[in-house]
Amino acid sequence: MVEENALPAVEEQPTLMIALGSFAIFGCFVFAICIYIADIVVPNHDWVSDTISDLAAGEYELIVDVGIYFFSGSIIATALLAAHVHLGGWRWSVAIVCLAILGLVVFLVGARNEYGDNDSEGVVIHVYLVYAIGALVTAIALLMAKGAAKAGNIYRRLLLAIAVVWAVSAPIFFFLPDDIDGAYERYLGFLAFALIVVLSKLFISRGRKVVTKI
After folding, report:
1. Count of domains in the chain?
2. Model confidence over 157-203: pLDDT tens digits?
3. Helix-strand-coil percent breakdown of the chain, rounded to 5?
């Protein structure tokens, strides 16, 4: 007989973990492919000097917007995984909230359509969304490093490396000359992808281990 006030049993669901982790990685891949396609399709575009925001404005904006929405989905999937597989401590809990906010911020970047076209109508929040992304990526990597170590010290090291490199690299973007900021922004995008891929690999690996124990 189950006691009336007993806590329900909690079990990790390996299929969910592997599926969401795989989708998160897939979403990063889709975003990268969308940028590559836009680089080819958009006329008079130079990927070294022109930013992703430039690609996302104008006639071909849908190509990059699709990638942005997929990446937003990747981040939200990672937040769901982090909540499902809570690796302990207040830092991990705060990081879950930060992941959810980051997913929303990335979605808003695509939905607001304020980039690259000198939009000045209404309240323009694009630059503030960019600042938020910069702060959130650093915070998530730092906050999750300790908990990730429970799945393997390699995850802790990778997350700390991402946090340090991102924290140093991201502010530099705002001081770069226009003739190279496009390439640099893509480098920052790679770091953001790395954060999601590292976390996704952690959850996929854990899901596979759970399967082998069943």
Report:
1. 1
2. 999 999 999 999 999 998 888 888 888 999 999 999 999 999 999 99
3. 75, 0, 25
d(CA 144, CA 95): 6
> Nearest 5°: CA angle at 201, between 78 and 38?
70
For every residue of 115-133, DSSP letters joined together read SSS---SS---HHHHHHHH
3 pLDDT exceeds 80? no
Is 4 part of any domain? no
Which pTM was predicted? 0.90
What is the rounded CA–CA span in Å between residue 72 and residue 79?
11
User: How far, CA to CA in Å, does 44 sit from each of 26, 140, 197?
Assistant: 29, 37, 32
User: Distance (Å, rounded) from C-alpha 134 to C-alpha 131?
Assistant: 5
Write the CA distances from 93 to 16, 41, 88, 111, 123, integer angstroms. Answer: 20, 42, 8, 27, 32
8 within a domain of the structure (yes/no) = no
Give how far Cα 8 sits from Cα of 2, 4, 16, 175, Å. 9, 10, 19, 53
pLDDT in tens, 56-81: 666 778 889 999 999 999 999 999 99
1 within some domain: no
Instruction: Provide the domain limits for residue 26.
Output: 14-209
